[in-house]
Design brief:
Chain lengths: 597, 161, 130, 589
C-alpha cells in the first residue's frame, strides 16, 4: 500500500463553492489528464478549510502547501509547476511578507485559520474509555506533579497567574475562587463539577465528558488537593446518557490506577468522585441552585453571600467549576501559567470552546483563542451562512445573552467586550441567524424558555418574564402598540435590576438586545403589522396568484379548514378570515400560485 | 383515614424500597432515587412517591415538590415509544417547530399526551446537545438528526408494526 | 492493573504506552498497521457512527487488512458526522466526513488499499498543546 | 462593629446584621413583604423572593434585597432613590397582575400585608391587564382552613411554618415558574394530607391565600333563631388577646368585657371553657396518678410518660406521624369537648331542653378546634357536642360588625354553673399551664398534703423544650414541656428511642401554647406580643381565689350530682376518647 505522491485538495466549502469552484476543479482535472497524471496524482474535494476570506483555497497534500484566491486559469500553473516540477507557485501562496518557502506559507495559513485545542485537546484523539490513551498524552502527570512537587498555594498561584476564568458564564477568576474555598477552614470540603449544561444550543461540556472524561477527573483531584477537599461531585444532566456512561467508566479506571482513592500517587492526599444527576432544570446551572439540587431538593437559588466557598454542599465550603474550566487545568499545570496567559486578550486568557449552530455551514465545536473576532469565527471557521443567505445576527450566551449583529463582527471576543455589546460569553453557544429569522419571534423564543425554566422563587422572574413574554406575543400577533416597546424596555430593566439569581438578572437580555439592534423589526410588527422575515404567522397572508393558478384543486383539498374555494380548472381563492396560515396550500401547489405576504 | 392503594404488585413496592435502600435511604439522594425509580417504572405516580417518601423519611409534599420542579420527571405514563422533539435554540432556528406540528398532526395528540393505543407520546425537550444535527428528534433512546416534516411519517412508521 | 504509585511510574507508563503504540507491529506478523479512529459521541452515533464502526471492523476483517480501529470523542465537525480519522503508516492523519457505509467502502478500497484520497476530506484546522 | 451609611446617616451595626435591620435600628423603614422575623421562635424567614425590600447599594450593579443582604464595612445604601421606588412599584404591579382584584369582598381586606404595601407604594393602576394570564388553582375547603391559592404571592411563609417550626411537612412549594405555588402533595385536599390544622400557616399568611373557615354568619343565623338556645364557651387564651383587635395594649385582659360583649350578641348563657379545663384536670390528673402510681409500684405494663391531650393540633400530629405511640397520650378529651359533652347532657337536662335545640359554640384561639368538634367520636346520633368553633379573630369581627363599643363595655361575670373556674384552668392558655395545673391537683391527691405555693415557675417560659423535676414529697417526678410541633417531635423521637425519662409531658402545637394559636389576632411577626399574652394569663391565675381545679365547687358538685367520681364509667363515656391511626399505609392491590 503506497500513498499517491501528490493530492490536490480543493476546498468544497460553501463560500469557495460560490467562487468558480467547479471551473477550478474541472480545469485541474483537465490539466492532470493532459499530463497523464490521473493515476499518480489525486484530486479531491474537501470540506471547508476555514479560510473562506481567502477562498477559493487549494492544498497540495502531503506538502502542506497552500494556495489561496485561486482562479480557474491558475490550474495549469499549479499542475505544471507544483505537481510536475515540485515547485510551489509563489504568487498563489498565502500572502505573508516574510514567507519564503511554500511549506512555511502553508504553516502560516494553517495557523491563520487554526484553532487551539486546549480543553478539547484529547477530544477526537483518544479513546475516552481507555485510560491508557489518556496517560499516553500526559494524562495525570499534572496531578502527579502537583502532589509531588507543589504545595496547594503554589498550585493556586499558577492557576491565578494563568488568568483562567470560569467558562460557564460570568467568568469569575478560577484561581481566586479556589483560594476562597481554601481559606475557609473546615474538615469537610467539596469540589463540584457543574456538568448541567443547560444552555440549549451549547454542547461543549457534553463533548468533553464524552471525549475526554479523565481530564475533568484529573482537574477535580487537583482542585481537591488545592482547597483541601476529599470529595468531588459531578452534577450532570440526565439527558446525557453517553457522557454519564463514559464518566462512570473513567472514574472506575482512575480508581483502579490509583488516581482516585486513598494515598493518590503515594501522597497523603485522598480524593473520590461521585455522580449526581440533574433532572432538567436550567436554573440548576446557578451554583446555589445546583447545590440545593444535589442535596435532593428543588433547585431554587439562594442569595449570595454566603458563597458556596463559605457554605455550600451540606453547608460545607464548596468549589464549583464547570467542565470546560476544569478541562483547562491539567494543561496549565504542565505547560505553565505563562504559556496559557500568552494566549488570549489582556483580561481573557486562553481559549474558549464555542458550539457553532444555527444557520451556519460548519456547524460544530471549535476552540479558539480569546480575542478572535466574530467574523473569523462565523465566516472563516464556520464557513459562513448556509444556502448563501445573509447574516443577520448571532446569539451568544444562550437565553442569558443577547444577539450581536453585523456591526459587531469585528469585535474581539472576550468576557468584557461581549458584555459591553449587550451579550455575554455564557457557556459558549453561538446560534447564527440569517435573514429568514424574525428577531421579535426569536426574543419570544428565549422568553418562552425562561418562563418555562424560571424556578418561581422571586417575583420579577416568575411574573415579570411572563409579562414580557405576553407583550412579545402580543406584538408577534400584530396587536402591539408603540407604547409596548417602552413597556418592554422598562420592565426588562427592572427585572434585571431586581431578580434574585443570574437567570432572572439576564433573562431580559434577548429582549433588550433585539430592541437595541432591531427596533425597526418591532416597529414593522407594530405599525405596519408586518413580519419582515415572514415568520410570525399571524402577520402573514396567503394569496393565490391568478395568473399562475390552473385550478388543479390540490390546495383546496389540502386546506384543513376549507378556506380555499374554486371550481376545477377555475382560479381558486383563499378566504383570509378562515385561513389558519398552516401553509399546507403552499406546500401542495406545484404552480407557484400560492404566495405569502 | 387515608390508606393508599398502590396500583403496583407487592414485588414492585419491594423494588422501590430496594432502590431507596441502595442509596442508603438518604434523603440527599432523593433525585437519584427518583431517576432510578422512573427508570424502572417509566413514570412516578402518586403512590410511588408515597412509598419513596416513607422510605427516605421525608414529607411526601417535598417529594412532590421536587418531582414537579424538574422537567425530567413525569407523573404520567409515556407511550411505548416516547417521542421527544428537541426545541433547543439550534433546533428552533432550524425548524423544530414545524417538525413538532407535523408529529402532533400525524398522531393527533398534543405535547404531553399519549396516543389512545399507548404507543406514542410527544414531549419537548431542551437540547440533547446534538445541535449539529438540528432539528433533532428522539424516539426512546434513538436520535434522529436533520429531521424535516416530510420525514415524520416514516419515523412513526418505523414503530408502527 | 496495579496502582500507579508515583509520578515517575506514571511517566514510565506513558513512555511504555507511546512506545507500544509506535511498535504495534512487534506482536503482529503484518507490517505497520493502519490506525482508524471513529468519532463516537452523541452526534456521531445519532448520525450512524455505530453502523459505520461495525461496517469498517467487519470489512477490514473480511478484506484482511491489518488495522487498529478505536472509538474516540467528538472531533468537532458536527456538520460532517460520522467522521473518521485514518493514519496510514508514516503519514499524517486524514479525517473524512460523512462516512456512511458506501463512503467507508470507498475509503477502504481507495485510501487504505491504494493511498488515494477521496472526496470529503476534512482539513485539520487546529493546533493542540501536544 | 461595621460602619456604614444608610440614606446619608452614619450607622454602626454588628457584623451579620442585614441592611433591613440596620436601617430599622436607625429609624429608616423599608417595606418588606415575604420577610418574617419570628424572633422569639428563632425563625427568620428571608427567602428574598418578593423583591419589595430592594435598596440601592453603591458599587453594586443591581439592587439588593435589604432583608437578606448583610452590611459590610463602608457600605453606602440608599433606601428610597427613584430607581428603588420605580423598581418597587413595578415589582408590586407584577404581583398584583397575578392576583385577584377582589379586595372589596376579601376576608383579609384591611388586614392584608399586600394591600398595605400596595397603598404605601401608591399603586393606582395594574398594567398588563389586557394581556395577563392569572395563575389559578382549585380552592380547597377543609374543616378548619381554606386554601385559595389564587391569592398566593409565593412569600413561602406558610411553608416555613409547616416545615421548619412545626415539622408537619404538609406543605411544599410545587411546580415551577409562573405556576409555582405552595400546596400539599399532589395538590390533594388538606383534609387528606398530614395537615394538623394548627393554623400557623394561616397566622402568617400575608394575604387571604390561607384563611380560617368562617362561621360568623352561621352564628348570626343561629342566634337569631328563637327555637334554639345558643350557649358559648370561651377558651382561656382568648381573653388575653381579644383586646388587641380593639386597639388595647397586648397583654390586656378583657375577660369581663368579652363576657358582656357575648351577652350583648345574644348568647343565652356565657360559659367558660375554663370550667371544663378544671374537669380535664380531674380526669387527666387522675389518669396520670393512676399510671404513675402503678409505674412507681413497679408495674411495667404501664406506659410512661403520659402525654397531655387537650391540644387538637397535637392530637392530629401524633395520630398521623407517631402512630406507634397512640397508647401513651391521656385518653381525656380536650376541655372544649368535655364542655360540649357536659353541656349537652348535664346542662341540657338541667334547663330541660333537647340536645338538638341546644347550640354549643366555642370561642377558640385555635383553628384545629374547628376540626376537632366535627370528629365523629364527639357526636351523639350525628349531633356534635360542640356545634362549631369560632376563632378569636372571628369574634372580634362579629363584635365590630354588631357595632358594640368594646372598650367602654362593663365587666360582666360568666354564668353558672359552667362558668366558674380555678386559676389552674386559666393557665391552660399558655405553654406549661396544663401540666402546672395537673401538678397542683396531682401533688395534693398523691401526697395528701396541701401545696404551700401554687406557682411552679420552673415550668414556665418560652423555651421550646423545658424540663423540670417536681418533688412529690420525696418522689421526684420528671416533667417535660414542648410547644410548637417541631419541639414536640424532638421529645417524641426521644420516647421512641426509649431515651425519655419523663413521667409526664405537656405538648402544645402552637408556639407559646394557645396564646399563640392559629386563630388569635395576627401578631404580624411581633412575637413579643406572645410574651405579653402569657403574662396576662398568669395575672389572671394570680387574681383567682381558687387556684386548684379540684377545689372548684361547681366541679365538686358536678361529680356529686352527675359523674360520680373521676374515671367513673360515666366519666369515661362522656369525657374520654380514643385515637385513630391516620398514617398512610401502603396497601397493595
Amino acid at each position: 500500500m503506497t500513498v499517491k505522491k501528490k493530492h490536490i485538495l480543493v476546498c468544497n466549502g460553501t463560500s469557495c463553492q460560490n467562487v468558480a469552484h467547479d471551473e477550478i476543479f474541472n480545469n485541474l482535472k483537465k490539466e492532470l489528464q493532459n499530463h497523464g497524471l490521473e493515476e499518480s496524482a489525486g484530486l479531491v474535494r474537501t470540506a471547508c478549510f476555514g479560510l473562506c476570506e481567502k477562498g477559493p483555497v487549494i492544498e497540495i497534500f502531503p506538502d502542506k502547501v497552500f494556495y489561496v484566491q485561486v482562479k480557474p486559469e491558475d490550474a495549469k500553473e499549479i499542475v505544471e509547476e507544483h505537481i510536475i516540477r515540485g515547485k510551489p507557485v509563489k504568487r498563489l501562496l498565502y500572502n505573508e511578507p516574510e514567507t519564503i518557502s511554500g511549506k512555511e506559507s502553508g504553516e502560516k495559513a494553517r495557523f491563520k485559520r487554526k484553532q487551539i485545542r486546549i480543553a478539547l485537546r484529547n477530544c477526537g484523539v483518544i479513546d475516552p474509555e481507555n485510560i491508557e490513551e489518556y496517560i499516553s498524552r500526559y494524562g495525570y502527570e499534572a496531578l502527579g506533579r502537583v502532589l509531588d512537587e507543589m504545595t496547594p498555594s503554589d498550585t493556586i498561584r499558577i492557576i491565578k497567574d494563568s488568568g483562567l476564568r470560569g467558562r460557564g458564564g460570568a467568568g469569575f477568576p478560577t484561581g481566586l475562587k479556589w483560594e476562597l474555598a481554601r481559606n475557609n477552614q473546615n474538615d469537610q470540603k467539596y469540589v463540584v463539577c457543574n456538568a448541567d449544561e443547560g444552555d440549549p444550543g451549547a454542547f461543549m461540556d457534553r463533548s468533553i465528558l464524552e471525549g475526554d472524561p479523565h481530564s475533568v477527573i484529573e482537574a477535580m483531584a487537583i482542585c481537591g488537593y488545592c482547597i483541601g477537599a476529599g470529595k468531588g461531585l459531578v452534577y450532570i444532566r440526565a439527558e446525557y446518557p453517553l457522557a454519564i456512561e463514559r464518566l462512570k467508566i473513567a472514574i472506575n479506571q482512575a480508581k483502579e490506577f490509583g488516581f482516585l482513592g486513598r494515598n493518590i500517587l503515594d501522597s497523603d492526599f485522598h480524593f473520590d468522585i461521585e455522580i449526581r444527576y440533574g433532572a432538567g432544570a436550567f436554573v440548576c446551572g446557578e451554583e446555589t441552585a445546583l447545590i440545593h439540587s444535589m442535596e435532593g431538593g428543588r433547585g431554587e437559588p439562594t442569595l449570595k453571600p454566603p458563597f458556596p466557598a463559605q457554605s455550600g454542599y451540606l453547608g460545607k465550603p464548596t468549589n464549583v467549576n464547570n467542565v470546560e474550566t476544569f478541562a483547562n487545568v491539567p494543561v496549565i499545570i504542565l505547560k505553565g501559567a505563562k504559556w496559557f496567559s500568552s494566549i488570549g486578550t489582556e483580561k481573557s486568557k486562553g481559549t474558549k470552546v464555542f458550539a457553532l449552530a444555527g444557520k451556519i455551514n460548519n456547524v460544530g465545536l471549535i476552540e479558539v483563542p480569546m480575542g478572535i473576532t466574530l467574523r473569523e469565527v462565523i465566516f472563516e471557521i464556520g464557513g459562513g451562512i448556509r444556502n448563501g443567505k445573509k447574516f443577520k445576527a448571532v446569539q451568544t450566551g444562550g437565553p442569558s445573552g443577547g444577539c450581536l449583529t453585523g456591526k459587531h463582527l469585528d469585535l474581539p471576543i472576550d468576557y468584557e467586550t461581549l458584555v459591553a455589546a449587550g451579550s455575554m460569553m455564557g457557556s459558549g453557544g453561538m446560534i447564527v441567524m440569517d435573514e429568514d429569522d424574525c428577531m421579535v419571534d426569536f426574543a419570544k423564543f428565549f422568553l418562552d424558555f425562561t418562563v418555562e425554566e424560571s424556578c418561581g422563587k422571586c417575583t420579577p422572574c416568575r411574573i415579570g418574564n411572563k409579562r414580557l413574554n405576553e407583550l412579545l406575543d402580543k406584538i408577534c400577533k400584530g396587536n402591539g402598540a408603540m407604547e409596548d416597546i417602552e413597556r418592554l424596555y422598562n420592565l426588562s430593566i427592572v427585572i434585571k435590576d431586581t431578580a434574585l439569581c443570574g437567570l432572572g438578572q439576564s433573562s431580559p437580555n434577548p429582549v433588550l438586545a433585539t430592541l437595541n439592534h432591531f427596533r425597526n423589526e418591532y416597529e414593522a410588527h407594530i405599525i405596519d403589522k408586518k413580519c419582515p422575515a415572514g415568520v410570525c404567522k399571524a402577520l402573514m397572508t396567503y394569496e393565490i396568484v391568478e395568473e399562475n393558478c390552473v385550478g388543479c384543486t390540490a390546495c383546496a383539498r389540502a386546506c384543513p379548514v376549507g378556506a380555499i374555494t374554486g371550481e376545477r380548472k377555475e382560479v381558486h381563492r383563499i378566504d383570509p378570515r378562515l385561513c389558519i396560515k398552516c401553509g399546507a396550500c403552499l406546500e401542495k401547489c406545484k404552480f407557484n400560485a400560492v404566495i405569502v405576504n | 383515614m387515608s390508606n393508599i392503594k398502590v396500583e403496583l404488585k407487592k414485588y414492585q413496592v419491594e423494588q422501590i424500597k430496594e432502590i431507596c435502600k441502595s442509596f442508603g435511604n438518604n434523603p440527599d439522594e432523593l433525585i437519584n432515587v427518583l431517576h432510578k425509580v422512573q427508570g424502572t417504572f417509566g413514570y412516578l405516580p402518586a403512590e410511588v412517591q408515597e412509598v419513596i417518601a416513607q422510605e427516605l423519611k421525608v414529607p411526601v409534599a417535598k417529594v412532590y415538590g421536587v418531582v414537579t420542579f424538574y422537567s425530567y420527571f413525569t407523573m404520567l405514563p409515556k407511550g411505548a415509544y416516547p417521542i421527544s422533539v428537541c426545541t433547543g435554540t439550534a433546533c428552533y432556528v432550524r425548524g423544530a417547530e414545524t417538525v413538532l406540528q407535523e408529529f402532533k398532526k400525524e398522531l393527533g395528540i398534543e405535547v404531553g399526551q399519549t396516543t389512545d393505543d399507548g404507543r406514542f407520546s410527544i414531549s419537548c425537550l431542551r437540547c440533547v446537545g446534538a445541535c449539529g444535527l438540528a432539528p433533532v428528534v428522539m424516539v426512546g433512546d434513538k436520535t434522529y438528526g436533520r429531521v424535516s416534516p416530510d420525514m415524520v411519517r416514516d419515523i412513526i412508521k418505523e414503530y408502527s408494526d | 492493573m496495579p496502582k500507579v504509585k508515583n509520578p515517575d511510574e506514571l511517566k514510565n507508563l506513558r513512555n511504555q504506552l507511546t512506545a507500544r503504540a509506535g511498535k504495534k507491529q512487534d506482536d503482529k506478523k503484518h507490517k505497520d498497521p493502519v490506525v482508524i479512529k471513529i468519532a463516537m459521541a452523541t452526534c456521531s452515533i445519532a448520525s450512524g457512527a455505530r453502523d459505520t464502526f461495525n461496517f469498517i471492523t467487519a470489512a477490514l476483517k473480511k478484506r484482511n487488512i491489518d488495522a487498529i480501529v478505536t472509538r474516540t470523542g467528538c472531533m468537532g465537525y458536527c456538520y460532517a458526522e460520522p467522521t473518521i480519522e485514518i493514519t496510514l503508516p508514516g503519514t499524517e492523519p486524514v479525517v473524512f466526513g460523512q462516512v456512511d457505509q458506501t463512503k467507508a467502502d470507498e475509503i477502504i478500497e481507495k485510501y487504505l488499499k491504494k493511498g488515494e484520497l477521496v472526496d470529503g476530506v476534512i482539513p485539520k484546522n487546529y493546533e493542540s498543546p501536544w | 462593629m461595621i460602619n456604614l451609611t444608610i440614606d446619608n446617616k452614619k450607622i454602626k451595626a454588628e457584623e451579620g446584621t442585614t441592611i433591613y435591620k440596620a436601617a430599622k435600628m436607625a429609624g429608616i423603614d423599608i417595606p418588606v413583604l415575604c420577610y418574617m422575623d419570628l424572633h422569639d421562635l428563632n425563625i427568620e424567614h428571608k427567602p428574598a423572593g418578593c423583591r419589595i425590600c430592594v435598596v440601592e447599594v453603591e458599587g453594586r450593579k443591581n439592587l439588593a434585597p435589604s432583608c437578606s443582604t448583610e452590611v459590610t464595612e463602608g457600605m453606602v445604601v440608599h433606601t428610597h432613590t427613584l430607581r428603588v421606588l420605580n423598581a418597587r412599584r413595578i415589582v408590586m404591579e407584577l404581583i398584583l397582575s397575578d392576583h385577584p382584584k377582589e379586595c372589596l369582598v376579601c376576608p383579609k381586606s384591611g388586614n392584608c400585608d399586600l394591600q398595605k404595601i400596595a397603598i404605601k407604594l401608591g399603586i393606582r393602576d395594574i398594567p398588563y391587564q389586557e394581556i395577563s394570564e392569572i395563575s389559578t388553582y382549585r380552592t380547597d375547603f377543609s374543616p378548619s382552613i381554606i386554601r385559595n391559592m389564587d391569592k398566593c404571592i409565593m412569600c413561602r411563609r406558610c411553608e416555613t411554618m409547616c416545615n421548619e417550626l412545626q415539622t408537619v411537612g404538609a406543605l411544599s412549594a410545587i411546580n415551577r415558574g409562573f405556576m409555582s405555588v405552595v400546596a400539599p402533595a399532589f395538590e390533594m385536599d388538606l383534609e387528606d394530607s398530614v395537615c394538623t390544622y394548627c393554623g400557623q400557616c394561616v397566622a402568617v399568611c400575608p394575604t387571604a391565600a390561607l384563611t380560617e373557615v368562617d362561621h360568623t354568619n352561621r352564628l348570626i343565623r343561629d342566634l337569631s333563631n328563637p327555637s334554639k338556645t345558643v350557649i358559648v364557651q370561651t377558651a382561656p387564651a382568648v381573653r388575653a388577646a381579644l383586646g388587641e383587635e380593639f386597639g388595647l395594649e397586648p397583654g390586656t385582659l378583657v375577660t369581663g368585657k368579652m363576657v358582656s360583649a357575648l351577652r350583648n350578641l345574644g348568647f343565652k348563657y356565657v360559659f367558660d371553657t375554663d370550667f371544663a379545663a378544671d374537669l380535664t384536670i380531674m380526669e387527666e390528673g387522675t389518669e396520670m396518678l393512676e399510671r404513675l402510681s402503678k409505674h412507681l409500684q413497679g408495674d411495667t405494663s404501664v406506659k410512661l410518660p403520659i402525654l397531655t391531650s387537650c391540644c387538637p393540633g397535637w392530637v392530629n400530629f401524633f395520630e398521623s406521624q407517631f402512630t406507634d405511640l397512640l397508647d401513651i397520650p391521656s385518653t381525656a378529651k380536650s376541655p372544649q369537648q368535655m364542655f360540649g359533652a357536659i353541656a349537652k347532657s348535664y346542662f341540657a337536662s338541667k334547663i330541660n331542653i333537647s340536645r338538638k335545640d341546644l347550640i354549643v359554640v366555642s370561642i377558640m384561639p385555635c383553628l384545629a378546634k374547628k376540626y376537632e368538634c366535627q370528629r365523629d367520636e364527639f357526636k351523639v346520633d350525628g349531633n356534635p357536642d360542640v356545634d362549631y368553633s369560632i376563632s378569636t379573630r372571628e369574634l372580634a369581627n362579629l363584635i365590630k360588625r354588631a357595632n358594640i363599643d368594646f372598650i367602654s363595655l362593663s365587666d360582666d361575670d360568666f354564668d353558672a354553673p359552667l362558668g366558674e373556674s380555678s386559676g389552674a384552668a386559666v393557665i391552660f392558655g399558655t405553654t406549661g399551664g396544663v401540666i402546672e395545673a395537673a401538678i397542683r391537683t396531682a401533688y395534693e391527691l398523691y401526697t395528701g398534703k396541701s401545696l404551700e405555693k401554687f406557682d411552679f415557675r420552673e415550668l414556665r417560659g418560652m423555651e421550646g423544650i423545658r424540663q423540670a423535676t417536681i418533688d412529690f414529697d420525696g418522689t421526684p417526678i420528671h416533667i417535660g414541656i414542648a410547644h410548637g410541633l417541631g419541639k414536640a417531635r424532638e421529645l417524641l423521637e426521644g420516647i421512641r428511642k426509649g431515651e425519655s425519662r419523663f413521667h409526664a409531658i405537656e405538648i402544645m402545637a402552637c408556639p407559646g401554647g394557645c396564646i399563640g394559636g392559629g386563630g388569635q389576632p395576627l401578631h404580624h411577626g411581633k412575637t413579643e406580643i406572645l410574651k405579653k399574652r402569657m403574662e396576662a394569663i398568669y395575672r389572671e391565675d394570680q387574681s383567682k381565689t381558687i387556684r386548684k381545679s379540684h377545689e372548684n365547687p361547681y366541679i365538686i358538685r358536678l361529680y356529686e350530682e352527675f359523674l360520680g367520681k373521676p374515671m367513673s364509667e360515666k366519666a369515661h363515656r362522656l369525657l374520654h376518647t380514643h385515637y385513630v391511626d391516620k398514617s398512610k399505609k401502603i396497601i397493595y392491590i
